[in-house]
Amino acid sequence: MTAERNIATTPIAASAAAAEDAFKNDPTATLEGVRGKDVTKAAKALLKDSAKRGGGSIQMQDVVKIYPGAHKRALDDFNLDIKPGEMVVLLGGSGCGKSTALRSLAGLEDIQGGRIMVGGQDVTGVPVNKREMAMVFQAYSLFPHMTALENVEFGLEVRGVGKEERRKVAMEQLELVGLADQAKKYTQQMSGGQQQRVALARALAIKPRVLLLDEPLSALDAKVRVQLRDQIRRIQLSTGTTTVFVTHDQEEALAVADRIGVMNKGKIEQIAAPQDLYQRPATEYVATFIGLTNRLPGASNGEEAVVFGQRLPLISGSAKGDSVAVLVRPENLALSLPGQNDSKVGEHARVEVIHFLGSLVRVDTVITSGEFQRWNKGEQLKVTVQLPANELPAGLASGDDVIITPRPVAALAC
Amino acid sequence: MTAAIAQNGPAAAKAAGPSASSASSSLAKHRQELGTIAVSLPFFAYTACFLLAPTVIVIVGAFQDRSGAFTLANFNNLFAPNTIAAFITSILVSIASSVIGAVVGGLASYALVIGAKPNGLLRRMVSAISSVLAQFGGVMLAFAFIATIGINGIGTMLIKTLTGYTVNPNWLSSLPGLITIYCYFQIPLMIIIFLPAVDSIRPQWREACESLGGNTFQYWTRVALPILAPRFISAFLLLFASAFSAYATAAALFSQRSILVPLMIQGAMRNEMDANQQGFAQVLAFAMIVVVAIVMLLSHAVEKRAGRWQ
Amino acid sequence: MNETSATTETTAVAGETSAVKPPQLRAARVRKQSIIKFVILFVTLAFLFVPLLAMLIFTLRHPLSGRWSAAPWIAIFTGNGESLGADLTVLWQGLGTSLALSVVTVVLMLLLLVPTMVIVHIRSKALERAIEWVATLPLTIPAIVLVVGLGPIYRWLSADVLNTNPIWLCFAYVILVMPFAFRAIAVGLNSIDVKTLVEASRSLGASWPKVFFRVIIPNLWQSILSASFISIAVVLGEYTVASLLGRMNLQVALYQLGQSNSQISTAMSLLALLFGVVLLVALDLISDAMRKSKEGK
């Protein structure tokens, strides 16, 4: 890796670092400078051979994006702060603005308000091809008339890197993604997974300050998807490139991210490490989007709640009230047979379906008492419980009566 | 790309399928094959009568003398000065109208695709009109241009009242006039042929090029044009073939002057009883087949070359 | 690290930046592109529309006297050209022949192509390629060349087998429309999985004719329509074969009439063109409606 890094190391590196410091001290002055007439020139000077390559920080501040002719904001005062070398995943359903955020960062979309900083420099007015970021698209982004090797060389070629040099770098990148032996193939002769690895190599070859991945795995088979996602993470860790990864697949997000930003309606609802996000969701949207969750009726004082007679601690930011919904994960519910259970807490339920998931079992139940039906807007209250397979009561079958009890694990009330 | 993969899947399965079970059902398979051939028999019989037979008649006739014996003498007429001149004019008109048609039609296809919805109204209207105008050869096209810049044409009168200049009434049958008329069906033809090619240019390529640091010039010279080039060339060759084969428009404009090869064929067919004209129509037709076949082979070669990555 | 988004850190900066509107680089490029687009399309369409407009004016303004009148149009729609001193019998005869020819050609073409293409598509890749090669061959053999070879065949046909009725031009016309029709149907065949459709319906107990008429044809409907419309357009515009074989059709009639009254034949040409546009726009609308109703499901 160090050998490759050296390509970027030039005398200009020192001055670029100095310029970057100047930026930090007086952001407004440089802002005017960059937005002046010679946007490109200024940007070129500042971005050329930045010493921060492979580790730029990112700040997106109050970014507003409105598509022409649209009424709603695709990005609504969007804020994102990423540390150098971090891998952040933007996660959300379709139309939540995650791809728009990524494309705005790349410069592929104009923004109507706010600003974008990379490595401390304002790049809001810098055109895409001067931002020194590289993007991997969902699919079909490889140039079909070039071989894998020529594709990887492309970014270096447009930078005027000599033929020998760029061939060497490109081969190294192909080796990194394990495709050195496919270098001479045209991209149509490759599988979808191989194509995306070439796209990754092509992006990394220019030593981008930021690597942008726009649902790079969604067009692939499940098995390839898992392999490639782990490979992306390994390479990202070894190169230390700041990376923004957009996906709608929560499993993918949980597997690769340093931090996950869950997006909804053009905003980040919560950004946190995967585990925190799962265990301490800040909003109902986040709780329901990531993993399975049960919405159970309870009474809350803001710090503790009572659900099915059981007292449980609440996550800070929970709602208060006599009739709130408490969000409890399936694994935080205990299931027992009426005969075994001598405690006074818990609620009777009828088993509907039992799903065996190998070491785990998931049991779908319906609460027997009609008392909660009114609370649940007239619908039967369904509760899903997950437990280790060996804890499942022997002989449990559909239609059996069981007692469901929440475990005293912190939950969110809303 | 994925479509190609998806297609390969069933094809491979198809190939593997019959061989696995062939031992038990070879008789049934044999019957099935016979059935397939039987169903396609009318098609082949028909094309043999009305496509193959005429072609054979042309080729054989080119090498036959009056008594039906083999001869190369018919080809002497081919090297007469006026025949050579007709071939040169035909080829010149075809090349010029194809170059203009390909460039203008290519640009128009590009203009129709960029920044427009795939099923936008403008695009659909233009492609529907193009498909009509591409077929709009012949007599009707001649009328259109006579009405525009013929002796009593609207354009001729307009130019005269506005500038006082009288357009040469023979301009239509001059080389530039003929080229202009041919462009009228070449441009729409190019739009129909080339629109799918421009459609296949993915916006991701431009975005990828930009995000890798390429500017607009680099995008065009390194990505878009090289990808479009093979299909542009083969479209150009098809346009050439269509102009070279065109007969009706020229025939309607000047029936008495054999300045183009198709018009010479017409003349030769009318004078078949003339001893000097024996087999001349067949020779000319044979020469046309050769020219068009060369063009088609070139087009095939270009496509095959691009096939390495397409 | 694990708290909600970084709002608190950035609000201070946001106050300053919100006043400055970020440069709209992409929008500027889109504007530039749309100007180029407009210029190209305007010039191209102008070139295509000027002769059509000239045709229209030509039919309305008498070339010698300069008087404006709708006489040619009245003549066509009343079927009486006496006011202009023209005999329209030839025109009606040619139009009738061309319309009959287009119907017969379409029927013959469909009978010849559709069953063959479907069976071969399912059963034999090699035969399919052979048929494709043969069917697109007429693109390589100019009509004028074909006529040279068809001459003796038609002489024999009209003398010994059939007669000189122009309807028999349909045999040659099927060959002329074949490349276009073949492509239209091939597009349809490739867009549906015929093999699976056949296997599914066969496994449900459908007989071959039933499979063909109830399953395949409905799925190919759109491309059959498209093949037919294109064939009609080609037949109505055909001049080469008819004129050189000495048969009457619409185009030959137009040409003959053009010698005596160019206004009427220009008006008729415009009508034929309009008919072609209507045909193809209708096809476009039908396929659009079909696509929408499919997506609607």
UniProtKB/TrEMBL annotation, chain A:
Isomerase keyword on record: no
Transmembrane annotation, as ranges: none
The protein's name in its UniProt record: ABC transporter ATP-binding protein
Entry-linked SUPFAM superfamilies: MOP-like, P-loop containing nucleoside triphosphate hydrolases
ATP-binding is among the record's keywords: yes
Organism: Bifidobacterium cebidarum
UniProt domain ABC transporter: residue ranges: 58-290
Pfam families, alphabetized: ABC_tran
GO CC annotations, alphabetized: ATP-binding cassette (ABC) transporter complex
PROSITE patterns per UniProt: ABC_TRANSPORTER_1 (PS00211), ABC_TRANSPORTER_2 (PS50893)
GO MF term (any one): ATP hydrolysis activity
From TrEMBL, chain B:
TM segment ranges: 37-64, 84-113, 133-159, 179-198, 232-254, 279-298
Subcellular locations according to the entry: Cell membrane
Top-level division of the source organism's lineage: Bacteria
GO terms under biological process: transmembrane transport
Presence of the UniProt keyword Membrane in the record: yes
Keywords assigned: Cell membrane, Membrane, Transmembrane, Transmembrane helix, Transport
Membrane topology: Multi-pass membrane protein
Occurrences of domain ABC transmembrane type-1 (ranges): 87-299
GO cellular component terms attached to this protein's record: plasma membrane
Coiled coil location: none
InterPro entries named in the record: MetI-like, MetI-like_sf
Record has Membrane as a keyword: yes
PANTHER family documented for this protein: INNER MEMBRANE ABC TRANSPORTER PERMEASE PROTEIN YDCU-RELATED, INNER MEMBRANE ABC TRANSPORTER PERMEASE PROTEIN YDCU-RELATED-RELATED
Protein name listed in UniProt: ABC transporter permease
TrEMBL record, chain C:
Record's keyword annotation contains Nucleotidyltransferase: no
Main location: membrane
Any one biological process term the GO annotation gives: transmembrane transport
Cellular-component GO terms for this entry: plasma membrane
Transmembrane segments: 35-58, 99-122, 134-154, 166-190, 211-236, 264-287
Topology in the lipid bilayer: Multi-pass membrane protein
Stated family: Belongs to the binding-protein-dependent transport system permease family.
Name of the protein in its database record: ABC transporter permease
Naturally occurring in which organism (per UniProt): Bifidobacterium cebidarum
Lineage start: Bacteria, Bacillati, Actinomycetota, Actinomycetes, Bifidobacteriales
